[in-house]
Amino acid sequence: MLKDKSILLIISGGIAAYKALELIRLIRKDGAKVRCILTKGGEQFVTPLSVASLSENEVYTDLWSLKDETEMGHIRLSREADLIIVAPASADLMAKMANGYANDLASTCLLASDTHILAAPAMNHKMWDNPATQGNIKTLRDRGILFSGPDAGDMACGEHGIGRLSEPENILDSVRNFFRYKDALKGVRAVVTSGPTYEPIDPVRFIGNRSSGKQGQAIAEALSLAGADVHLITGPVSLPPPAVKQITRVETALEMLDAVEADLPFEIFIGTAAVSDWRANDLAQQKIKKDGTNVPELKLTENPDILKIVANHKTHRPALVIGFAAETENLQENARNKVNKKSCDWLLANNVAAEKKVFGTDENHVMLFQTNTDGHEDWGQMTKSSLAQKLVSKIIEELKNGEKNDTSTILAAE
Predict the structure, then answer these.
(1) Predicted local distance difference test score (pLDDT) of residue 244
(2) Given 36, 109, 157, 344, which residue is catalytic?
(3) Is 109 a catalytic residue?
């Protein structure tokens, strides 16, 4: 997949630097040439010798190297790479990137670069959550920097949270996807809805569902890697934010609909959100108390069908409308009915019965249904990341084939 590609890997400081050694091995195994810059902080965790041994190339560490800079090393390194990977990307190095600092070889090379950059952050979860770091990340995303991770989990400091470096295999997948889809959707605006919606009953309780948002965020990232300008509109989830340009957080179906309609027109709408079908007819202003005598009667009203509304929009109806359907029985019959009822072009249906274990897991099994056809495609069991890549690849082919005059695309799930 990466045959004859040239990768520049920048390894900054942090305990996660040891994972960069495995990343070098995987990238070279995939056919790419790897050259490495090791920062002073990175040298505290891995040695130039180990990096050089695995990359089979000279390791660059010093901005003021007489030999390298006689040849304008920082310019040459940045310009000769097909992709620059920063892994791990420390909070310090990302701050330098965001603010244009160039006081060492790594930051100077990044500032002089005219190629794509993929950052894989790694830091303590409090550093990741800090508004300064989040502000820097937003700046970098706005400038087109791609991201892989970070992940949530246990950290070397003994704490738990978001900030772990993505596993080398996952970073490699991001690199492969970059070259597979590079700029295929450049200039295309994509809106993705994801996660559940929470419909309040009183100030404490709500009606919700089990959606984790993993599938929607995977699709959003796959579109971003393909060059699309992605806006993720997400219900309440506990996942790390995906590597997309803009994120809007909502709670209710009405808030999600408002956010979608406010962003029209757009070319791609990906709505993998599991939108609640109903909401409370009357919202109690105080917590409903249990008095041991009468069970309160809960009256519901139907929520708007976001997929159907966008698919039937009179002025901004996208050319390709794709829905997701979560079913527990009669999957094929129900999916076929939804394709027609909601006026969508494609529909991806999965079985979320308890024994299928879809919600919150990393795998999914969908069937693709298309309008004006009787059959369906069984995509089989795969990771949600692989499903996202397969779907984006199919969208790209659809647009490339010119079967739709308008490049508008909607991927929606309700």
Answers:
(1) 85
(2) 157
(3) no
Dist. CA 192–CA 188, nearest whole Å: 13
Specify the 3-state DSSP secondary structure of 315. Answer: coil
Low-confidence stretches of the chain (pLDDT < 70) are: 64-74, 353-360, 402-414
Q: What is the pTM of this model?
A: 0.66
State the maximum Cα–Cα separation within the chain, in Å, rounded to a whole number. 86
Tokens of 273: 């959100």
Q: Of the candidates 300, 294, 259, which has an alpha carbon nearest to the alpha carbon of residue 280?
A: 300
pLDDT digits (tens, 9 = 90+) for 145-199: 888 888 877 777 778 878 889 889 989 988 988 888 777 888 888 899 999 999 9
Q: What is the DSSP string of 216-281?
A: HHHHHHHHHHTT-EEEEEE-S--SPPPS-SEEEE--SHHHHHHHHHHH-S-SEEEE--B--SEEES
If one counts every other C-beta atom within 10 angstroms of the C-beta of residue 154, the result is 10
- What does the alpha-carbon distance between residue 379 and residue 365 come to, in Å, rounded to a whole number? 7
Using an 8 Å Cβ cutoff, are 323 and 412 in contact? yes
* Alpha carbon distance 115, 217 (integer Å): 25
CA dist 142 and 154 (Å) reads 30
- Given the structure tokens 């056919």, which residue do they identify? 31
The residues, ordered by sequence, that sit 6+ positions from 376 with a Cβ below 8 Å of its Cβ are 332, 335, 367, 368, 369, 370
Which two structure tokens, joined as six digits, stand for 370? 């298309």
- Alpha carbon 269 to chain centroid distance? 15
